[in-house]
Amino acid sequence: MRPVRRKALQGALARRLPTANRTYPEGRVCASDGCDTRISIYNRSTLCWNHEPARIRLPRGRRKRRDAA
Description:
- By secondary structure, the chain is mostly loops.
- It has a domain at 22-49.
- 0% of the residues lie in helices and 0% in strands.
């Protein structure tokens, strides 16, 4: 017979759950005249993606070193 090997269990501390996503009222419609696109409950804007003004987004993250660029 083979000897029975026992495995030690290792645990971790319980952590808090992440915060829930912010939601907005359900059934909202784009505020642009003549547009009847429904807005997601997770979208903060009152306009749909088609009527939302274009914004310049700045990339985030680590910057490259000058000698590596």
